[in-house]
Every structure is written in structure tokens, then in C-alpha cells.
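Review this today:
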Amino acid sequence: MGVMFRRTPDKKNKQFFFSLLWKTIVAVSFATFLASGAIVLFGKLTLNKNYEQERIRVRGVYQQAFEGILKRIKSDRIDIGWLIPTFLDISLSDNNALLAIADIMKKNWFKIELQSDIESAFLFNKEGRLIGEWGSISYQGQFSQWLDYVKKNETTFDNILCEERCVHFHATPFLHNGNFIGIFIFGIDLTDTVVQMKNITGANIGILTHQQYPSNRDPYKNIPPWAFKIIALTDFEKSTALLKAFSQQHPAGPPQKTSLFEFKNKHYELIPLPFNGNNKTLLYIIEDISRGLTDVQKATALYAINGLLSLVLSGGVLLVLLIRPTRKLKNLVALFPLIARKQYLITHKPQLI
């Protein structure tokens, strides 16, 4: 009859039990942690890349829309035929024909302003001498190069000037009896460009132009330390405060590339679009991108939470699966000393904990 006894696990076996179990859990958890960390990092990089690609696409759409507006303005040929109620008498001399046109313009200018986007008009003879001017902008000799171009090529010419306002000027030759006798220049205010771009982007839009000296006439339109002033700006008070704060971080002048800027706990993207490639006059798109960045941060946080849950669950499942086999292994290890002493007849009845 074998001797029955209960063997209490010694401290060494207990240490072995915990060491083996927890080393296994720690090893698997560490591997899970690395895998989860890699997934989170990859997910974050992917989200940021996708977001940046989307922003590049959006900026491209804005650029095309702006160029489309300017192109449409340039391509709209102003038909001066409707400005003249009757055809000129073909018997009129060139000089008399120009005087007759000037008289017609004077009598019908109010109607022209009311029914068209034209805010100013100028009539020159073929030598470039001013015959008449109408509207809100006075001629100060700023058209000399344009007049030379139209006279030399007998074709139209377009340009944009920004002083107190941005105006698109369209110079076109005028023919009488098939002969080139004069040049019309029409001015169209570009303030409507701001409205059109705001409707397309949903963002605040501004037109800024370079000025050599700060304006004393409208000092609130100056943006120190930039040598730029505001021509037009939506949501004027808020946008002006943002631009002035932004200029403090870029004192050398308006950045020519898209910039990110944080203002009053919101994130903005400032997109400069030059008029006709001229960096002295910029259309600025001021877009609030806080929501988009928040969505990216939330998605990244979800990746991190999923990784943490994976780590906890894997550790818990592993603990449940290994604790019973590890106890059996511990009891088996307790028999090794008896086997070493060749006490084969002694029956060991392990006590399962």
C-alpha cells in the first residue's frame, strides 16, 4: 500500500509558476503592443496623407475657379455697338466720328452704368490723345503702354490695376469705315470676384495689394508690418484681426505659398492666389479647417483605442487560456525530486489550487 501524502508547493515552484505564466503574457502582450503601435502609426500616416491630398485637390479647385473667373472677365468682349443708339454717318471724318461717339457716351452714361458692369470708360484717338472719360476713375496716364500695344497690333489688351480698388481694364480698338481711328478702354470693378469666390469656397476672401507707403486715408485697411493694404475683405472685422495676427508671424510679407495658422483656438489655411501672376496683388482665401483636422484626430484616436483594447483583450485571453495548463505543469515539476530519488512506489497526489 502506497503512502499517501499531500505536498505543499514550495516557494521555488510558486515562483516558477508565476514566472512562466507572466513571462508568456508579457512576451505576447509586447508583441501585440508592437503590432498595435505599428497599425496606429500606419493609420495616422495614412489619414494625414489622405487629408493632405484632399487639401491639395481642394486648393487646385480653388485655383481653377479663380483662373476661370479672371478668364471669363478677359474673354467677355464688350460690344460697344449697343452703347451707340444709331450708327455713325459714314460721311463723318475720323475726328468728328470720335466727337460724336463721345457725345453719345456722355448722354447715355447713366444708362450704361446701370445696365452693365462697366464703372469707367475712356476714349482715345489713334495717337493716344484722350477724347473723353466717364465714370469713377480718372485717367492719369497709366494706360500709355496699353495704348501703344493696341495701336501697334490693332487688337485688344487686358490688365488689372489695384489702387483703392481692383479694376479689370479692357482696351479695344475702334474702327470707322474700316479704318482704325481710336481706342476704347472700359473698367470693370473686380469686387464681385470676392463674392464669387466666397460662394465657391464658403471661406472668407480678401484682396490685398502692395503699397509703398501706408494709407492715411483708411488706416484700418493697412496690415502692419506688411506693406499691403486691404482692397476687399469678407467678414471684415474678424478677417482683419486674423490677418494682422498672421502678419506678426511673417513680418517679411505675405507668404506666397499656402500657410497654416491657429487663431483663437481654431485652425485656418491661408491660400494666396496672385492676380495675373503678379505677387503684388493677391486674392487670399481664409478657410477654417478646424473640423477637418478634428476628424483626423478623432480617427487617429480610434486607432489608438482599438490598439489598446487589442492589447488588453489579448493579455486577458492569454491569462485565461494559460493559467490551468501552467498549474498542471507546476504539479508535474513537483514530482521531479521524487523521480530523482527513485521513490517510484510513493504516490504523490498533487493538490490543485
In short: Residues 1-9 have pLDDT under 50 and may be disordered. The first helix runs from residue 11 to 75. The first strand starts at residue 4 and ends at 5.
